[in-house]
Hints:
The protein is built from twelve helices and 16 strands. It is α/β, with parallel strands linked by helices. It folds into two domains: about 10-245, 3-Layer(aba) Sandwich (Rossmann fold), CATH 3.40.50.300; about 255-380, 2-Layer Sandwich (NE0471 N-terminal domain-like), CATH 3.30.2020.
Amino acid sequence: MGSGKGGVGKSTVSVNLALALAQLGGRIGLVDADVLGPSIPGMLGLPTHEPPMTTANQTILPAERYGIRTMSMGMLTGDDSPAILRGPMVNKYLNAFIGDVEWGTLDYLLIDLPPGTGDTQLTLAQNVPLSGAIIVTTPQDVSLKIARRGLRMFEKVHVPILGIVENMSTFTCPHCGKATDVFRRGGGERMSKELDVEFLGSIPLDADVVTCGDAGLPIVLDKPKSAASLAYLAIATALVRQLQGTPTTGLKAFSWEWSGADTGPGWMEGAVLKSGARTTAIGLRRTNPRTLSLLWEDGQQGHLDVRDLRLACPCALCVEEMSGRALLDPSKVRPDVAPVTVTSVGSYGITIKWSDGHSTGIYSFETLRALAERGANASAEDV
């Protein structure tokens, strides 16, 4: 997990992505490679006053929390003691964290890198057979420019780029529901297209990500139904498919302007399968200004009125999470409400920015299939 710039949330992404991968059934290890500025123990709620145990063979036993095996300099120095080390010693510790730790059997070993393109990155590229690098960036131009340098560095040392994650995307006020692109939006996806690499997904700017991390209970565990948690799960799913070499049959990542020249991000009738999945979308298009149509891998099509789709928003501002009671008053939704942009959320679903300013809902493909079938059944009954 790398980026040329600090402060973009690499460690937060690393921790939550590790937990999302574990939820998908993976056995996960996590290395805090920021030897001089470790932060992983705090985010996982690990005690920093207890040094790791060693085996009879003098290998280190990693700490384990929430099913994640972890190694960090923070376990050796504590919270207040700085690691004052020159480059060669940093590299020595880094090699030990990977090669001298009794990791056991793992499916994935995530490495949270420090910012920059220096000794740590070069040491890893030279000494460890890496499956690839994930570039984390925020949407604003200054972050994208530096992240691009980090990506180019990995290319020069022949480390494959697994994809780009855009962190700290749109912020939605929990009180009024207004969406604000604090650091702009969509920069990570534009960068992925320009450099022809995978766009793994975007993670919204959410205060709960910070508070959960500070409490040692990451948001993927504490608030699993939040938009941020679902985004992490979608990114983990896309990453597993890529690493396992499983072809993705659904639509590729997209951000589509509803009123633009393109009628949709794709409509792949040739990808229909007899045993296709009910909730894998292989087509999405604007049939007319008021209708969103979907094509599923099993060949079925669904058609959704966009105002009905707005009224069915599943976010916490529109539906009470515990009871499922609707909070949205239909009389306050304009008849001409329409999407502004439709954006993929990994392979999980879509999110829509609406003309009334609302943008917090994530519509899973399972939800969209159910809504379309419910609408088709209601039309049949009316006939």
